[in-house]
Structure prediction request, 301 residues.
Amino acid sequence: MANVIPLIRPEPRPQISVIMVSYHTGPALLEAVAAVIADPQIFEIVIVDNGNSYAAREKLSQLVQDHDRIRLVQSHGNIGFAKGCNYGATVARGTHFLFLNPDAIIPPGAAMMLAECADAQDGLAIIGGRLSDIDGHEQRGSRRDDLTPLSALISFTPLHKLPGFKSLHLETQPVPDAPTSVPVVSGACLMMDRISFEEVGGFNEDYFLHVEDIELCRRVRHMGGSVIFHPKATVMHYGSTSRARRQDVEFSKFKGFYRYFKSYSDKWWGKALTHIAMPFMFLAIMGRAWYLVLRKAFLGR
Prediction:
């Protein structure tokens, strides 16, 4: 009798749902959507309209008619980034969720790299892509060290420039050759499989805009999961394309930091450092916001 060769069925490939929350994004939105549609390995894109202009909605509606992989859902006003992501996840049909900013241009193949990296991990996992600016330089926030009152105090003051101190931002460090474990990756390009996302409970909706990605990474790590930075999955990120007032955006970031420290600083010295660090963080965040606003007003850039 001839030997019977067992049939090995290949594992099904991930079905990737890109979830994109858009609030007055501007022209970059259509470019970002076109880049997703150009990748045949992406199963669908769910666009959460968080309050775009009428003209933008008209263009998005036309895209939905032209491409059956685009799904447009209305959030009925600006409900915030975290809540918008969770809303998009409830209607997504894929096995993997890629949360992608509406001004991030993803090249073909990058989404599958992230999904396959997620499947290679044991247990809960978050995989973040490498964010770059238009010139190819890694952006700040693409990968970060653990956020603590002490690391915040060092990073938001000139202390990080002194010997023996370092910033929690890691974009100036050498880019690793392979996916590498880090404490925090950016929510601008963040991959989770559906099971991991649902088990961890999704994004914390107490955060309106900013810091929700840091908080999610913390919960995954504290549940025994992995947070991985993938250097080969590079996404060009314009950044700051929303027509929302920069001062409002940055103040929301400051409030996110304050909420994070208030939630996770359980030691007396942590609370003390929080009170010390907050004024420096406020000045650094809001000072930069006003500087950029004034520079654009007087120099046009």
